[in-house]
Amino acid sequence: MYAIIATGGKQYKVSEGDVINVELLKADVGSTVSLEVLMLNKDGEIIAGDAVKSASVDAEVTATGKGKKINIFTYKAKKNIRKRQGHRQPYTQLKILNIKA
């Protein structure tokens, strides 16, 4: 059984026991969060739309952190204008506990 969940403007395919990194959530480490379910596959049967409104996915917050650093470099040709920036995207690590249909 797996579910398609939505969080942070992205969609993820998850099963019980999976560990995923999602956009930063306002939740403490060790707490449990409930995620929005878009689609559910239960033994080959696809459940979606209004029928999946009662389903939920519970996940435990295992860690928070920052992702790999990316470098942003912009310049204007022939003008001696250069700008370098770095960015590390914050994330929340979730462990999927159970999928309730």
Fold blueprint:
Elements lengths: L1 E6 L2 E5 L4 E5 L8 E11 L2 E4 L7 E11 L3 E7 L4 E7 L2 E11 L1
Antiparallel strand pairs: 1-2, 1-4, 3-9, 4-5, 4-6, 6-9, 7-8
Structure, explained:
With 101 residues, the chain is mostly beta strands. It has one domain. 0% of the residues lie in helices and 66% in strands. It contains no helices and 9 strands. It has strands at residues 2-7, 10-14, 19-23, 32-42, 45-48, 56-66, 70-76, 81-87, 90-100. Strand 4 (32-42) and strand 5 form a beta hairpin. It starts with a strand and ends with a strand.
Summarize the structure.
0% of the residues lie in helices and 66% in strands. It is mainly β.
- How large a portion of the residues is in β-strands, by DSSP E? over 45%
Q: What is the CA–CA distance across the termini?
A: 10 Å
Topology, number of strands: 9
User: How would you name the oligomeric state of the polypeptide chains in this document?
Assistant: single chain
- Major sheet size, sense and barrel closure: 7 strands, antiparallel
Could you list some keywords that capture this structure?
mainly beta; Large ribosomal subunit protein bL21; seven-stranded antiparallel sheet; 0% helix; rRNA binding; RNA-binding; elongated; ribonucleoprotein; 9 strands; bL21-like; 101 residues; two-stranded antiparallel ribbon
